[in-house]
Amino acid sequence: GGIITQTPKFLIGQEGQKLTLKCQQNFNHDTMYWYRQDSGKGLRLIYYSITENDLQKGDLSEGYDASREKKSSFSLTVTSAQKNEMAVFLCASRRLGGDEQYFGPGTRLTVL
Amino acid sequence: GEKVEQHESTLSVREGDSAVINCTYTDTASSYFPWYKQEAGKSLHFVIDIRSNVDRKQSQRLIVLLDKKAKRFSLHITATQPEDSAIYFCAASRTSSGQKLVFGQGTILKVYL
Lengths: 112, 113
What we know:
The structure holds 2 protein chains of 2 kinds. Chain A has no helices and 11 strands. Chain A is about 0% helix and about 55% strand. Chain A has strands at about 5, 10-15, 20-25, 30-35, 45-50, 55, 65-70, 75-80, 85-95, 100-105, 105-110. In chain B, strand 6 (about 55-60) and strand 7 form a beta hairpin. Chain B has strands at about 5, 10-15, 20-25, 30-40, 45-50, 55-60, 60-65, 70-75, 85-90, 100-105, 105-110. In chain B, the strands form 2 sheets. In chain B, strands 2, 4, 5, 9, 10 and 11 form a 6-stranded mixed beta sheet that branches. A 5-stranded antiparallel beta sheet of chain B has the order 1-3-8-7-6, with no helix packed on it. Chain B is mainly beta.
């Protein structure tokens, strides 16, 4: 088996601040995803990466940057934190040719 | 783009009864429909999926039905147990590899004794 680790678990920032969330997986999966989960709104895709150094925008990419420096890690940057984006950010991964996405425990973002 | 609507925001059933969660989608090209479960305080995990080449799939107490004409799919949980209590998310994707999923809003299922 494997595991997805997200750091930090809780992130508190100031409005306008640049904040970075990190995700690591040891499944050796090729594809990784960042989702935002707002209460009552399901999950919305921010960015995904099919392989190392690849980046694809999701429906919610505005205001975010992502970086896939190596196969096992995928970072998400909130370029200028806003109070209306307090949410849980979930990282997921999937092996090439597989269907199931494996999710991490999430980072809860609070913007003051 | 694709929109996935989950019709029940909350569902309460008595233990042992069946629960049904319904979803509709808009993109006729969608061909892959997974379901994920999120238990309290935990992250999501996959429970079952269906592809557009079949209209029914069963895994133990879980049954998924797909009506392509109506662009509707549903999750049936039979003989519900307290551990089935969770938030269930449906999703849809154009590719069978589930590359880019569009999720529904989630249904809170409560199984009471």
